[in-house]
Design goal:
about 70 residues; alpha+beta; Arc Repressor Mutant, subunit A; two-stranded antiparallel ribbon; 3 helices; globular
């Protein structure tokens, strides 16, 4: 899970400026590992699917400390 946390932190910092697969490659992850991490983050409601320029995902907004 260390890669997932590292990826999520980098994902938030990239703010949609980097494709999710390219971001994984910058962190030393292959495409398959990156897709698994993205799937986990989607299932945990940490990110959501949105066509947003280069990146097709966005960090979920929180409501009163809870993820909506």
């Amino acid at each position: 899970m260390r890669n997932k946390d590292k990826y999520f932190k980098a994902f938030k910092e990239s703010n949609g400026r980097c494709n999710e697969i390219e971001l994984g490659e910058k962190l030393g992850l292959d495409e398959n590992s990156t897709r698994q991490i993205v799937t986990q983050l989607l299932s945990e409601y940490k990110i959501e699917y949105i066509e947003n320029g280069f990146c097709e995902y966005s960090v979920m907004k929180t409501v009163k400390g809870k993820i909506r």
